[in-house]
Amino acid sequence: MTISPPGRAEYWVVVPWDRQVRVYRLVDGAYQLAGELGSGQVARSDVLRGFTIAVDQLFEFEMEHTDVQES
Q1: pTM above 0.85, yes or no
Q2: Whole domain around residue 47: which residue ranges?
Q3: What pairs with residue 42 in β-bridges?
Q4: Which carries the bigger pLDDT value, residue 69 or residue 61?
């Protein structure tokens, strides 16, 4: 199941356990997967002109299990 923000032209899902970014774009009223990006790739926004980020930059830090708190 995908929960998407209403009315947004684009949204990104960061999947830390797979070290991926999934980009969804609104096409004809429905969100479609525009890209699944991983290590060595660069994510680009169609909404924020000029915004790019290397996927590897999102995962430069190492998170310890103790850093994650369950609610």
Answers
A1: no
A2: 10-61
A3: 54
A4: 61
Task: Establish if 66 belongs to a structural domain.
Answer: no
Rg (CA), the chain: 14
Residue 47, in any domain of the structure: yes
Burial of 22 (0-12, 13-18, 19+ CB in 10 A): middle
CA-CA distance, 16 to 58, in Å (whole number)? Answer: 9
Question: Does 4 reside within a domain?
Answer: no
- Ramachandran region of residue 27, left (φ > 0), alpha (ψ -120 to 50) or beta? beta
Q: Contact 43/52 with Cβ under 8 angstroms?
A: yes
Domain count, the chain: 1
Q: Which residue has the tokens 């479609």?
A: 32
